[in-house]
Request: fold
Amino acid sequence: MLGNIQQAFQGVWHHKLRSFLTMLGIIIGIAAIITIVSTIKGTNDQIKENLVGSGTNVVEVNIHQGDYQLDLSWQQPEGISVISEDTRRDLETLEGVEAVSLYRQRQWSSQVLYKDNAFSGATLGVDENYFRVYGYRLCYGRSFLPEDRTNHRKVVMLDTRAVAALFPGENPVDKVLEISGEPFTVVGVVEKSSQFRPVMESIDDYNMYADQTSGAVFLTEAGWEIAFSYDEPQNAAVKAKSTDAMTAAGKAVADALTASQIRDPKNSEYSYQSEDLLQQAEQLQTMSESTNKLLIWIAGISLLVGGIGVMNIMLVSVSERTHEIGLKKALGAKRRRILGQFLTEAAVLTSLGGLLGILGGIGLAELLSRAMDTPTAISVPAIIVAAAFSILIGVIFGLLPATKAARMNPIDALRRE
Reply:
């Protein structure tokens, strides 16, 4: 076997131009497939990142009326009970759930003021689990203390974006904000451990992202009752154990909350529902893949043409080496020896083409990524499959010439030059 491989490499080296032209179809086909698959994978990863975020694996569960999420700043549904701490702990035992936080929210609240400067970001009333679930870290100042909740202290925390909006160039700690006409003292500043920056390819992407960049002001549950509403229903932030578990974990918590918190049959129009970002990402990925699969089939035509070229050059090689084949058979070489020799040569030829195609595909994917700002991600499984497929092409399309050589009559072969 090693002798056949060595002889095959010698043949490629002695006929360098002919071998390269023979491999060209394989090189183009493999390079095109690697480039397309890398683009598909990069696009899918970008879609998933844009929707799911930076890897915190958090699903938000909100109250809906039918298919529409309730804006609790305008509508306060009756008959929906406040979620107890015991219920929150029970939710954390559901499959796929790592942690659960309860919070209340006002989006684009104009009730937060600092020196007559209105705040346009979100205002949230959070429990002691919120910052852990969302992956916030303390930048400076302090976090909420148990005494802040039990003593109903009027204290708030800000994220770094809210600081930039309300206190440009200032240290906000110990400064006083006004929320719904009540004074609240800033005690600390937080930021997410991993900051997510989505790719914005349209004005809609920009508007969606811009809504999230004004920052947030955080109150305790006790502070929320002072500034806004007492016994207002909460939302839940569910941290899943993995990204793939987000859909199931969010739905499990939503169903459990609907069953436990909305018991009055008169409120059947209300329900807790989770935002299924992972499913949205998968739908967009499916649309992307269906388009690119057509491109893969088109690239596959190059492999078919390349395989036919390999078969053609191997038939020429058999004709050129007829005398050599006859001499080997006259010296006792068996059919399988001749068959193995020519199959090995075909496989080596296509393997070299596949290797060059893989390198070319990786290079082309990187070039497209930099030149066109297209997200790409090299797929190791695709490289392995491409390498195996290139060998398979050599075996399949080299089978006919190898069989022809193996069945050659030694007497007839020796008569021909």
In short: The chain has two domains: 2-50+283-415, 67-268. Residues 2-50+283-415 form one domain.
